[in-house]
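Here's what a typical entry looks like (LysR family transcriptional regulator):
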Amino acid sequence: MKDLEALIIFARVAEMKSFTQAAESLGIQKGRASMVVRELEHDVGATLLHRTTRTVQLTEDGRIFYSRARDLLAEADELQSMFSPGGMSLRGRLRVDMPAILAQSVVIPALPQLLDAHPEFELELSSTDRRVDLVLEGFDCVIRLGPIVDESLIARPLGKLRMINAASPGYLKRFGVPQTIEDLLNQGHRMVHYMRNFGAKPDGWEYPSGDDYKSLMLPGTMTVNSVPAYHEAGLAGLGLIQGGYSALLPHIQRGALIEILPNLRPMPLNASFVVAHRRNLSQRVRAFMNWTEEVLKPYFD
């Protein structure tokens, strides 16, 4: 390949699923974008994009090629800026995924300062509770809470997010404020049940016991499968909840929730910054990783 222009155009078409939108974003004619991608497919000897009248989708070969192309473009960007001063403004697009409640409560409110400081930096933020596929879905990096089950991924621990127990004032007025684990049973408390997939066994009420943690199953009248719904059920007074301090703090500050059993908090949740492989650590990725760590630091145990 004579230069990286073909990869840049191909990657933008793949990301936007449209030759028209990709061409407009790059400031070129649609016909030129289409011609460059056709020549690229001829050069590599494979059909990379499946074209219809409505949309453009990556073929299976295209998915593999796109993943490698993103790596190469990231390395080219790194090469271009490797001798630049450390304070140089970030440029280009970064695609990130993180849990919805973390994005909503902590990351997005802090983003204006980052984006104002780097006006040429574009963040593509996915917020979902499912575990995305970094390679097939084209993510540069993700933030994950809990254990990293895929050993092929490269994970950097960020810290342990503080977890707390909480309930609404109305709920506590009805059932009483528990002071001990025994009170949870004696006062007839109930909890909101959470399970990622319905049909599985719900988690119990987690509490520290010696050097370990135990789980007490309390009755409940509602089961949910998303963290935002779990928090809303607690706010509605439907039961006790256990959640991240970062997400519940705004509700506690305005009096909609009250922390209970502060000496019996559940196990902190590991937060990790994850990439598919080490060569994904471009300047943009490293800068965002360091920024994220600073933003989350007040909520770490």
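The radius of gyration is 24 Å.

More examples are in the samples folder.
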